[in-house]
Write a structure and sequence with these properties.
Keywords: Membrane, Transmembrane, Transmembrane helix. InterPro entries: DUF7536. The protein has a domain of 37 residues. It contains 3 helices and no strands. Helix 2 packs antiparallel against helix 3. It is elongated and about 70 Å long. The protein starts with 11 loop residues before the first helix and ends with a helix. 10% of the residues are buried.
Length: 96
């Protein structure tokens, strides 16, 4: 028996074939665009004020909505990237 770990095949070819870099770029653009749109609508009350009063400690409503915008952008980017990569993988398997 050998104590050596077997060599793993390089994953760069798979990442390139699935166009992960392109999909991630599209996902980030979509996520940031959605977050900016929601931020503008909410903070500048483009569709009217929100009913009721809220307290936003420490950073105020703009700060909290920036944090929520970052979370929304990250989640959207991950979702779009995953869906595009899955679609690319499906397309590649159909071609084989």
């Amino acid at each position: 028996m050998s104590d050596e770990t077997p060599a793993r095949p390089p994953s760069a070819g798979l990442v390139e074939a699935l166009q992960v870099r392109r999909n991630a770029t599209i996902g980030v653009v979509a996520g940031v665009a959605l977050a900016v749109l929601v931020y503008l609508v909410r903070v500048f009350e483009l569709i009217g004020p929100v009913g009721g009063t809220q307290r936003y400690p420490i950073v105020g409503p703009e700060g909290w909505f920036l944090v929520l915008g970052f979370v929304l952008a990250s989640a959207t980017a991950l979702l779009v990237t995953t869906l595009l990569t899955a679609a690319t993988a499906y397309r590649l398997t159909r071609e084989l």
